[in-house]
Specification:
Number of helices: 0
Order of helices and strands: EEEEEEEEEEE
Radius of gyration: 13 Å
Amino acid sequence: QVQLVESGGGLVQAGGSLRLSCAASGRTISSYAMGWFRQAPGKEREFVAAGSWDGTNTLYTDSVKGRFTISRDNAKNTVALQMNSLKPEDTAVYYCAAAGRNTFLPKRGPSDYNYWGQGTRVTVSS
């Protein structure tokens, strides 16, 4: 089993930045595709970003391209989401997700991920 714990959420003004971190424990995630999803109030959970096992292949939803960057440190078993130029519409609970052993390539669908964190709240004020 893999446990994921997110941190780094908070309140920020529009145009500001936040860096979310996801710490994995239980197993090494070095061969896992990893992703970030978010869920705004009253909306379904949506894909934000995903990265391959080595961080070289990444996927982003269109609304965050050029503003968000997913990265990972396999030596530390962590994944990060750097969020710049934040907008009020980025307000949501952000979830880290791990696809599973030897999944390697980034994935967009929530059903492709087997492990989920509890989420960290991001609020962007206008």
